[in-house]
Design a protein that fits this description.
The structure is a homodimer. Chain A folds into 2 domains: about 180 residues, NAD(P)-binding Rossmann-like Domain (Rossmann fold); about 100 residues, 6-phosphogluconate dehydrogenase C-terminal like domain (6-phosphogluconate dehydrogenase C-terminal fold, Orthogonal Bundle). Chain A is built from 12 helices and 8 strands. Chain A has an 8-stranded mixed β-sheet, with helices on both faces. In chain A, α7 crosses α11 and α11 runs antiparallel to α12.
């Protein structure tokens, strides 16, 4: 492989995703040095204590010292930060005595992609940015949720790769190879539609389920007693963090609204079939839903 | 313990629940003999091959030979079968030369309880029936889904136990002790309300999610590629069996409709907050839902 031997990776945001990347990129030798930026002082102290990165630095030092920058912040923040990073690359290019071409790369790991690629579409250094989405995670967040092996065997999506410089794409592909992820290539708007259906709606259904049950079951002991494995797994995502999900729903608003409408329509069909005592219709709905068996382990 | 040494347990329905009980009741010495009834010839052959029970018998032999009968069939079937079992007990009592008191016990393991207790409310042998619901399961069904340890550490609900003979309740409590289950006592109608909220709605939200995603994602490969752990766990219950769930929704119709309505209302609030770009409202909904963390592991 043509991977650089002395790669410094700078990770902005040392939460579940950024922190887990930091662990495996260092352990598996992709990065010779991993530095991190963490705006939240509590999270920064935790990341330092856990030893997620070689050093916690400020944003300027991270831009200066990193060959590859990973934006692992909530998507609302990333949309603002990404043009600033490319601007910073540009000023470094200008400052360079030999005016050598910029070889730094920036990637993001956010769950929506269209707003990001749109934010830098006309940027002269657009090619240094690679838009990605590793499909991995847990319902926990923060540096203490970071873990080795989080990405192993999962899929990562690389969006609009034709807009990125080939060497930048290659660097990012190498990174994901190190994390044992399958690559999938898509355009950003297609990505946002698909994740609305497969990921974002799952979170909304879990949040709504938690709200429904909490509303009814004022006696929390009953929930605990009666919650079998089925309920726990269905409601698990309702533990997910607002800082991450508020901007996702906002950025992917139109797709998410569309999928919510489809979902409410399906739920309405269940309601109607049950209300009508139409057992054949309930059976058909369940058997249609069972087709998911063929796809999901 | 005062448990009978030579207890024969007869299990009607050798699916996931009945089959798993058969395994542990024999292995852990609660039953000296476990016999089973299985109406479906394919399932009967599988149960025989796996060796779930000592012998597969017909319904009459099971009634005759068993000290404790476990109805582990879908609730619609159990509602018809339970009065027949008590009638059979009665005719055996009459046939007995010494007219000794009936000591056989019948219990069910269904997910709704009110229709069952109502079906035998005035039966002269009502006391021989114990209404129970072990809160355990997987999304798989049939004898091949049976496994040891399925019930360990979970809760079992015993309903309207004051209507059952004390020795019958004790036998059933001993059975659940053998399965390492915590006992919870409730009345049948309270049970049905609680499980609508904590269990039945989880299944409906999963079914609706599967239908939504399958509807949109005609390209099944995309679902597979993009499904991260979050989607899989949320949609897992959508694999559940129609034979089991159609009668549950039918028996628990009013409670299920009420919880669907609450759920649709919560989903509507999400929709509105996202449509209005009201990030503060989305955040409040998520943070309210996050309270489920305190209750569920």
């Amino acid at each position: 492989m043509e991977q650089k031997r002395n790669m410094t990776v700078g990770i902005v945001g040392l939460g579940l995703i950024g922190g887990s990347m930091a662990i495996d990129l260092a352990r598996r030798g992709f990065a010779s040095r991993v530095i991190g930026v963490e705006a939240d002082p509590v999270n920064a102290a935790a990341a330092e204590k856990i030893g997620l990165v070689d050093r916690i630095v400020d944003f300027d030092d991270c831009m200066e010292q990193s060959d590859l920058i990973v934006l692992a912040v909530p998507v609302g923040t990333a949309v603002k930060m990404l043009p600033e990073v490319l601007d910073r690359f540009r000023s470094m290019e200008d400052d360079s005595p030999s005016a050598r071409k910029m070889k730094k790369t920036v990637m993001d790991v956010c769950s929506t992609k269209e707003a990001l690629v749109r934010a830098v579409h006309y940027h002269p250094l657009r090619g240094r940015y690679v838009a990605t989405h590793p499909m991995a995670g847990t319902e926990y967040s923060g540096p203490w949720a970071a873990m080795p092996g989080l990405f192993d065997g999962r899929a990562c999506i690389i969006c609009d790769s034709q807009e990125s410089a080939p060497d930048a794409v290659r660097t990012v592909e190498n990174l994901y190879d190190t994390l044992n992820m399958r690559h999938i290539y898509m355009n950003a708007s297609g990505h946002d539609v698909h994740v609305a259906y497969v990921s974002h709606i799952s979170h909304i259904t879990s949040f709504a389920l938690a709200l429904t049950v909490l509303d009814k079951e004022k006696n929390e002991k009953h929930i605990f007693d009666l919650a079998s494995g089925g309920f726990s797994s269905t409601v698990r995502l309702a533990k997910s963090n607002a800082d991450m999900w508020v901007p996702i729903f906002s950025q992917n608003r139109d797709n998410v609204l569309q999928v919510i409408d489809t979902y409410i329509e399906k739920m309405g069909r269940f309601r109607e079939a049950i209300a009508d005592d139409d057992e054949a219709a309930v059976r058909t709905l369940i058997e249609d839903a069972n087709r998911i068996k063929r796809i999901i382990r």
